[in-house]
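Render this sequence as a predicted structure.
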Amino acid sequence: MKQSDKFRQANKEALATVIATVAVILFWWAAGFGLADCKTMILGTPLWVWGGCVGTWIFACVVVYLLIKFVYKDFDLDEEVSHE
């Protein structure tokens, strides 16, 4: 892999991470504040707590799995040295 390809991949990973972070924040906002008016209780806890805390944690785990599976690549940033 050429050095330029390595930096292109690193930029792709950084952008995907920023998008993933925004997605998790938006999910947290929707699941927490969006369910605030809901009167449903689970085990004595309001639904917004389950959505905003547990739901967001599960969503974040899924997002990280997708990043690892489809975006991140394992490569060495060091320049390749020829031993000829």
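Summary. Strands lie at 41-42, 45-46. The mean pLDDT is 93.
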